[in-house]
Amino acid sequence: MKISKIKQKHQRGQSMVEYVVIVGAIIAALYSADDVMKLMRDTMKGSQEGYSYAISIAELPDENDTTP
Question: Is residue 61 part of a domain?
Answer without folding.
Answer: no
